[in-house]
Amino acid sequence: MHRKIIIWGLSFAAFSVMLGAFGAHALKSMVSSEKLQIFETGVRYQFMHALALIALSLYGSQHKINVASQKGIGWAARFFMVGTLFFSGSLYILTLLSPADHPLIRYIGPLTPLGGLCFILGWLNWARVVYQSKDS
Hints:
The protein has about 140 residues and is mainly alpha-helical. The chain has one domain: Four Helix Bundle (Hemerythrin (Met), subunit A), CATH 1.20.120. It is about 80% helix and about 0% strand. The protein has helices spanning about 1-25, 35-60, 65-95, 105-110, 110-130. Helix 1 runs antiparallel to helix 2, helix 2 packs antiparallel against helix 3 and helix 3 runs antiparallel to helix 5. The protein starts with a helix and ends with a helix.
């Protein structure tokens, strides 16, 4: 399980660097500075949670934790991944599309706070695992 989590973290990190470069170079001339700031927020949170996935994987592999805690680590990882897709993904889409571009754009906005909620749940799950771990 920890190998999969670290691979997701490394992949999200690499992708956030690519998106950051895209934002700094190509996107800069295509959108307003306000929209660019929204895009950069998505990149920042994606990278932050990519590092969290990597750290979570390392924590899980270096500590002797029980099966329930292993499941907690799995849930924290899932919440971080879904949070990244919802939070950062929705910000990327909102940056590139205007409300007139697509009729489904009004459904994209609510994904951002749902992604934020997933981030919070991921951190709380990890905190629960650490709290319940006798080894920490």
